[in-house]
Specification:
Length: 380
């Protein structure tokens, strides 16, 4: 089976490109429900044509998630998303186009090419029993309404394969975990000219907290703590009574996320009378390499049989839905999507010639896992 996959999928490359154009041309910004509905219908149509069945529509907040279940007992979950970061109207100035071996358009690399490749991979296998494909519509905004479905489905399978784009062709064998926080400061307003001494200046308070927050990072351990959005005050002639600061935390281990979390909650005011409040917390645990190593090794075996170059695995600083499944202890491999570059950037592109190769690699990996499960998998 594995040897024939490359030939089969290479012959389907023109059709893969047509389907990629269809999905990219259907704009799907995460915050636009009407566009998401239309885009979900396009994804559903492509999936139905290749898998032979309609998906189950799972309702979300302002979007729909699509689930295909092949067979009775799920064993492998393939996860992707069709929403993008690009606003409505982007395709009018930057439409889907092909230049040599590159296809470009908003969302092409992240991650509509990955969706296309997955459909063709499973199609090439003849729709084997034991596969579930979940394509969500809110990943770019944090998977708020799809998280429970992802975790529920992942808890029942032996392995999770994530269709996020590759990093310069490499698989993402580990990802940092993340925490998202907002520090609120409550002071007291007063007239900035008549009696500034009567106020408690929230701007001054939060300014003194920022260096303490910045000091929590530990670059040597791969931990970043980044003060980002800041807002303070209500009028230019008033001692600011309130302020808030957003804080982005990334770390390679849960222990580091917990260290920073505890430290942020232990911050104390510097000005008499000021009050601090911390909102938020740890959002996603890390996808640690141990969760991906066995799957990466199996993918490397498949690549060798297909005659592909040796695979590479790297750490990614961003998070994905793979963080959610790895946190459950389910073997998870990320970065199985497109080869190309420019995620979230103007001009993102996909290497067309790599699409059949990636689809064949995914198909071969699925075929191998169905025939020979990962040893020690929780749900084996």
């Amino acid at each position: 089976m594995t040897v024939r996959l490359m030939e089969t999928l290479s012959q389907l490359q023109p059709r893969m490109l047509e389907d990629l154009e269809l999905l990219v041309s259907s704009e799907s910004p995460s915050t636009q429900p009407m566009e998401l509905v239309a885009a979900a219908e396009k994804v559903s149509a492509v999936g139905k044509s290749l898998l032979g069945s309609e998906p189950v529509y799972l309702p979300g907040e302002g979007c729909t998630h699509l689930l295909w279940s092949l067979g009775v007992k799920p064993r492998i979950l393939i996860v992707g998303h069709y929403d993008t970061v690009w606003p409505v109207g982007t395709t009018s100035r930057w439409p889907f186009s092909v230049d040599g071996d590159k296809a470009t358009g908003p969302g092409s690399f992240d991650m509509k090419a990955g969706i296309v490749q997955a459909f063709y991979a499973v199609h090439a296998l003849g729709g084997p029993d034991g596969i579930q494909i979940l394509i969500t519509g809110d990943e770019e905004t944090g998977s708020a309404s799809s998280r429970s479905a992802i975790e529920k489905l992942a808890a029942e399978v032996e392995a999770v394969l994530v269709l996020e784009a590759s990093l310069d062709g490499a698989f993402k064998t580990s990802r940092k975990g993340s925490g998202m926080y907002r520090l609120h400061v409550r002071g007291r307003a007063s007239h900035a000219g008549l009696e500034p001494e009567a106020g408690i200046n929230a701007t001054v308070e939060i300014a003194q907290q920022i260096p303490l927050i910045d000091d929590l990072q530990d670059i040597a351990r791969g931990t970043s703590v980044t003060p980002t959005t800041l807002r303070s005050g209500e009028a230019s002639n008033q001692v600011p009574p309130s302020a808030w600061l957003d804080i982005d935390v990334r770390a390679t281990s849960m222990s580091e996320l917990e260290r920073v979390d505890a430290a942020l909650r232990c911050l104390r005011p510097k000005l008499d009378g000021a009050v601090l409040q911390v909102e938020g917390g740890i959002d996603r645990g890390p996808l640690e390499q141990a969760q991906a190593s066995a799957l990466f090794d199996r993918a490397s075996e498949v690549a060798a049989v297909l005659g592909l170059p040796p695979l590479r695995g790297v750490m990614a600083g961003g998070t994905s839905d793979g963080n959610l499944t790895a946190a459950l202890g389910i073997p998870t491999l990320d970065g199985l999507g497109a080869v190309g570059a420019g995620a979230h950037s103007e001009g993102e592109w996909v290497q067309i010639s790599a699409m059949p190769e990636r689809a064949a690699l995914l198909a071969g990996l699925v075929d191998s896992l169905l025939a020979r499960p990962i040893e020690g998998s929780t749900n084996q």
